[in-house]
Amino acid sequence: MKLSKTEEQVMQYLWKLEKAFMKDILTEFPQPKPATTTVATLLKRMIDKGFVNYNLYGKSREYYPLIKKTDYFSKHVNGLIKNFFNNSASQFASFFTSETNLSVTELEELRKLIDSQIKEQKK
After folding, report:
1. How far apart are CA 24 and CA 54, in angstroms?
2. Which run of H or of E encompasses 62?
3. Angle, helices 69-84/5-17, rounded to nearest 10 degrees
4. Which tens digit of pLDDT belongs to each residue from 52-67?
5. 18 backbone φψ class: left, alpha, beta (φ>0; ψ -120 to 50)
6. Residue 38: enclosing H or E segment and its boundaries?
7. Are 15 and 51 in contact (CB under 8 A)?
8. How many angstroms separate the CA atoms of 1 and 7, rounded?
9. Can you give the pTM of this predicted structure?
10. Residue of 20, 63, 70 lying closest to 43 (CA atoms)
């Protein structure tokens, strides 16, 4: 199941806050802020999709994410590699490094990360 762009925006706020009431979520939005009913509808859809749940305190709902940000992001990156790069991480890496205007420092940092991961997997 996938989130819409606006649902992803709400998820970003929930990941940041970890738990939040409606007023807390609305505070995160830039101006002009959406209507409370709009955010309530988004949260309802996200609950139905299994991404969010809530605890009820009287009539107030405290929302929290059911999926970790890293899990969500990992699933989408893997889907991107599968759908746009013929399931080839090498093609993805080639595109990413050549088309994103990374500095030499950033490329060197990526190399360090990759070298570290290679060492870890060889253990």
Report:
1. 14
2. strand 60-65
3. 150
4. 999 999 999 999 999 9
5. left
6. helix 36-48
7. no
8. 12
9. 0.74
10. 63
